[in-house]
Design brief:
Layout (H helix, E strand, L loop, with lengths): L2 E6 L6 H13 L3 E6 L3 H4 L8 E4 L3 H4 L1 H9 L5 H6 L3 H9 L2 E4 L5 H10 L4 E4 L1 H13 L1 H5 L10 H23 L8 H10 L7 H17 L3 H12 L5 H17 L7 H17 L3 H15 L2 H4 L6 H4 L1 H9 L2 H7 L17 E7 L7 H9 L3 E7 L6 H4 L2 H11 L3 H16 L2 E5 L3 H6 L8 E6 L1 H4 L14 E4 L2 H10 L10 E4 L21 E5 L8 H12 L6 E5 L9 H19 L3 E5 L4 H4 L5 E4 L8 H8 L3 E5 L11 H4 L5 E2 L2 H11 L3 H19 L1 H13 L7
Parallel strand pairs: 1-2, 1-4, 2-3, 4-5, 6-7, 6-8, 8-9, 9-10, 10-11, 12-13, 12-15, 13-14, 15-16, 16-17
Helix pairs in contact: 12-13, 12-14, 13-14, 14-15, 15-16, 16-23, 20-23, 28-33, 31-34, 34-35
C-alpha cells in the first residue's frame, strides 16, 4: 500500500480541489495523511473525513523560548520549525512513499523531510503527487528494492544538524552566561568586562554583547558594574549610534535615580544619527521615534527643571548644537512660511481677536477682561479643552514631530478643519504659552491672520520652541529681557529673516488689589515666601536666610504660602523634600516657620508679611515677589543662579539694591531695613510705589494696546 504525507502551510483557496484529490487517492487505495499549520476542523472539515489530518504543535505548546525562535524566523521556515519537533511527522515521513508540498509555505518543510527520508519522492502540488503515485503503482517491485544511495539522511543534513546543534549550544551558553542570574556573580561580571574590551572583536558583536550584558547587570542591581563595562566598551566603538545605544540604559537608570547623566548627550547624538539615517532614506516615520527619544532626554525634568542649574541655561548654543546640526534638526527648522502676509484689520468694523484658552489661563485674566469690554474690539475664545478640540490635540507632540520631519501630515489637515474657520474670522490670534497649542497652530498656514505668541520661563526649557514654525508667527512676547536672551540663543531661527518680531512686555498684574495696611509693627519680622510647588523656588535658601537672621534676633520668622512640593514628581524632588522637611521640623518646633498653605486670598495672607522673598533658582519675572512688594513688604531678591552674571538678570530687572547674592547678604539687607518701624515702613512704601508705577496693569496695558491694536512696528 502506498502512503502519502502532505504538508499545508496556508489555508487552501479552493478546498474542493483538495477534497477531489483526496477522493482520487482513496479510490486508488492510497493512505493519505496531511500535516497542517492551522486548525483543520474549522478550515478544511471535509478533508478530515478523507484523510488523517494532523495539526502541527503550536509555539505555545513547544515553550516560550521556541516560540520566540519561530516568531523571529522567516515565514517559509516556520512550518518546518514546528514540524521537526513533532513525533507524528517524523513517524509518518519515515514510512511515506510520496512527500507533497501543497503550497509555497510548505516547500521548505517537504525539502527538509526529503533530505532525511530519501526513499520517498518529494513533489510540489496535487497533480505531480498523483503522477508520482501512479508511477509507483505501475512498478511496485522497483520501489521495494532498497538502494544504498537512499539509505539514511543526506550527508548535508548531518553536517547541517551538527552545525545547528553547535550553534544552539553556543547560543544557550551565551544566553546563560550573560543572563540576569549570571550577572549576580562577581567573577562573571569581571569576565565580561574583559571580553567586551578585547581587541579584534568586530564592532557589531562588541556592541550587541555589551548591550545585553549591561542590560542584565542593571536588572540584577549592579548599576556600577554596568556603567563601568559600558564606558569601557564604548571607548572601542567607532559608531556614535552604537555608543548611544549602549549607553542608553545607563543614562535611563541614572535619570530614574534623579541624577543628570554624564553621558546624556552621547545617547542624544546616537538617536539623532539614527533619525538622520532614516531621513536620508526618505522615511520620516521611522526617524520620528528617535527624534522624540532625543527630546525626552535633552528636556527631561531631571536635566532642566529639578536641579540647581541646567545645561541649557549654562550654554544653550553648545547644549543644543547636536540638534541644530543634525538633518532632523534642520528639517524641523525649515520655515514653511505663509502664502499671504498678515493684514491689519480694515476700518469700519471691530478688531477681531481670538484667544487660545483652556490649557493654562493664569496670566490671561486682565487681558481678556480689557479687550472683551473695549469698544471696537470683538473677542472670541478657542477653548482647547473642549471635547470637540481634544481629538486634534491627542498625541500632539508625536504628530507635530512627524509633520515637521515630513513637511506635511494628515493631522495638519485635521487642525485646518477644526481651527481654520476661527482663523478666517480673526484678525489677531493670541496664544499664551508656547506649548502644544502654538506648535499645532503653526502646522497650518494662518492666512492673513496675525499670530501672536507669548513665551514664559517653563517653555524656554522645553522642546516646544523647537516644534514651532516661527515663520508663521508674527510677534513673540517675552516677560523679561533675560528670558528673551535665553530663547534667542536656544532657538537660532527666532532671529532669522522669517522669524517673528520679538517684544518684552511684563505680565498683566492688578497690583492695586494687594495694597493694604500691615497688621502691626511686628509684621516687619515676618518673611514671606509665596509659591513652593516647584524645586525652582528653592525654599531651603529662605531657611538659610532665616537662620542667619535668628542668630541675631529670634523675633524673625518665615511664613510659607502655597502648595507644598510633591515628592512623587521625581527622585530629585523627593530627595530635596526630605532635606527640606528635616530642616522645617527643627524650625517649626520653635515657631520660626509657619506653613500657611494654599489660599485664594493672597492679599489677605500678605497683611502680616513685612519682607517678601524671591529665593528662586530661575524666574521669568516672579509675579509673587512684585505682588508682595505692592502690599508694602520689603523685597529681597536672590540673584537667580540660572541667569546670574548675564547681560540681563534679576539685577537688571529689579532695582539693584533689591538683589543679593548670598543668604548672608539677604540677612544684612533685611536687618538694615527692619531695624526700626519707620525705616521698614518707608522702605515698603518706596517698593510699593516702584512696582505700582512700573508693573501695575494700569501701566502695562498700554504696551498690550500698542502690540495688539496698532499696526505692527519693528521689534522692541
Amino acid at each position: 500500500m502506498i502512503e502519502v504525507l502532505m504538508v499545508m502551510g496556508t489555508i487552501p483557496g479552493r478546498v474542493a480541489v483538495l477534497t477531489d484529490a483526496l477522493e482520487q487517492f482513496r479510490a486508488k487505495g492510497v493512505t493519505v495523511r496531511v500535516a497542517t499549520t492551522f486548525d483543520p476542523g474549522e478550515n478544511i472539515p471535509a478533508a478530515t473525513e478523507l484523510a488523517e489530518v494532523h495539526l502541527l504543535p503550536t509555539s505555545a505548546e513547544l515553550g516560550p523560548r521556541f516560540g520566540r525562535t519561530v516568531k523571529r524566523a522567516n515565514p517559509a521556515r516556520r512550518p518546518w520549525l514546528r514540524a521537526q519537533r513533532d513525533p507524528w511527522v517524523r513517524r509518518h515521513a519515515k514510512r511515506a512513499d510520496v512527500l507533497v508540498a501543497l503550497d509555497a509555505q510548505a516547500l521548505h518543510t517537504v525539502w527538509q523531510l526529503a533530505q532525511r527520508y530519501r526513499r520517498a519522492d518529494a513533489v510540489y502540488g496535487i497533480a505531480p503527487a498523483l503522477r508520482a503515485v501512479e508511477k509507483r503503482s505501475a512498478d511496485p517491485a522497483r520501489y521495494r528494492r532498497p538502494r544504498l544511495n537512499t539509505a539514511g539522511p543526506a550527508p548535508a543534513v548531518l553536517v547541517s544538524a551538527t552545525r545547528s546543534q553547535t550553534v544552539d549550544l553556543a547560543k544557550r551558553v551565551f544566553e546563560m552566561s550573560t543572563g540576569k542570574r549570571a550577572m549576580k556573580l562577581g567573577p562573571v561580571r569581571w569576565f565580561w568586562q574583559g571580553a567586551v574590551t578585547a581587541p579584534g572583536l568586530p564592532e557589531r558583536h562588541r556592541g550587541k554583547i555589551a548591550r545585553r550584558v549591561t542590560g542584565n547587570m542593571l536588572k540584577s542591581g549592579h548599576a556600577t558594574s554596568a556603567k563601568r563595562l559600558a564606558l569601557a566598551a564604548q571607548g572601542r566603538l567607532k559608531s556614535p549610534t552604537t555608543r548611544g545605544q549602549l549607553l542608553g540604559p545607563i543614562v535611563d537608570a541614572e535619570l530614574s535615580q534623579g541624577k543628570v547623566p554624564e553621558h546624556l548627550m552621547t545617547v542624544v547624538r546616537g538617536q539623532l544619527k539614527l533619525a538622520d539615517a532614516f531621513l536620508k532614506k526618505r522615511n520620516p516615520g521611522k526617524a520620528a521615534p528617535h527624534v522624540l527619544r532625543a527630546f525626552n532626554l535633552m528636556f527631561h525634568r531631571i536635566v532642566q527643571f529639578d536641579g540647581a542649574t541646567s545645561p541649557l541655561a549654562e550654554n544653550p548654543e553648545e547644549f543644543l548644537a547636536p540638534l541644530h546640526n543634525s538633518e532632523a534638526g534642520r528639517a524641523m527648522a525649515t520655515p514653511r512660511g505663509r502664502q499671504s502676509p498678515a493684514a491689519f484689520p480694515p476700518a469700519g468694523r471691530p478688531h477681531r481677536m481670538l484667544f487660545f484658552t483652556g490649557l493654562n489661563d493664569n496670566f490671561l485674566g486682565p487681558i481678556l477682561e480689557r479687550y472683551e469690554a473695549m469698544p471696537g474690539v470683538e473677542v472670541r475664545r478657542l477653548n482647547l479643552m473642549e471635547e470637540s478640540i481634544l481629538p486634534v490635540l491627542s498625541n500632539g507632540r508625536t504628530n507635530v514631530v512627524h509633520h515637521m520631519l515630513a513637511g506635511s501630515s494628515k493631522r495638519a489637515g485635521e487642525v485646518q478643519e477644526a481651527w481654520g474657520p476661527h482663523l478666517d474670522w480673526a484678525d489677531t490670534v493670541f496664544v499664551d504659552w508656547c506649548n502644544l497649542g502654538a506648535a499645532m497652530l503653526t502646522m497650518i498656514d494662518p492666512g492673513t491672520t496675525r499670530v501672536v505668541v507669548r513665551l514664559h520661563s517653563f517653555e524656554a526649557f522645553s522642546w516646544w520652541p523647537h516644534l514651532t514654525d516661527w515663520s508663521r508667527v508674527d510677534d513673540l512676547v517675552f516677560v523679561s529681557e533675560h528670558l528673551r536672551d535665553l530663547a534667542l540663543a536656544a532657538v537660532p531661527r527666532l532671529g532669522a529673516p522669517q522669524g517673528p518680531r520679538t517684544h518684552m512686555i511684563n505680565n498683566a498684574m492688578e497690583l492695586h488689589r494687594y495694597v493694604a495696611p500691615k497688621a502691626s509693627a511686628d509684621s516687619r519680622f515676618t518673611l514671606g515666601l509665596v509659591g513652593l510647588s516647584s524645586l525652582a523656588k528653592d525654599p531651603r535658601w529662605a531657611l538659610d536666610v532665616l537662620r542667619e537672621l535668628r542668630r541675631r534676633d529670634e523675633r524673625y520668622r518665615l511664613k510659607l504660602i502655597g502648595d507644598a512640593l510633591n515628592p512623587e514628581l521625581s527622585p530629585a524632588i523627593k530627595a530635596y523634600v526630605q532635606e527640606l522637611d528635616a530642616e522645617l521640623a527643627e524650625l517649626e518646633s520653635s515657631g520660626a516657620v509657619v506653613r500657611f498653605g494654599r489660599t485664594d486670598d493672597v492679599p489677605g495672607a500678605l497683611t502680616d508679611v513685612g519682607v517678601i522673598l524671591s529665593t528662586s533658582l530661575r524666574e521669568s519675572f516672579h509675579c509673587a515677589l512684585v505682588e508682595g512688594a505692592a502690599s508694602g513688604a520689603v523685597p529681597v531678591v536672590r540673584d537667580w543662579p540660572f541667569f546670574a552674571g548675564r547681560p540681563h538678570s534679576a539685577r537688571t530687572l529689579f532695582p539693584s539694591d533689591w538683589v543679593v547674592g548670598t543668604p548672608e547678604e539677604a540677612a544684612e539687607r533685611i536687618l538694615a531695613l527692619t531695624a526700626s518701624e519707620e525705616v521698614w515702613r518707608e522702605a515698603g512704601r518706596a517698593a510699593a510705589a516702584h512696582v505700582l508705577s512700573t508693573w501695575d496693569w494700569s501701566v502695562t496695558q498700554k504696551d498690550f494696546d500698542r502690540l495688539l491694536l496698532e499696526p505692527p512696528a519693528t521689534a522692541d
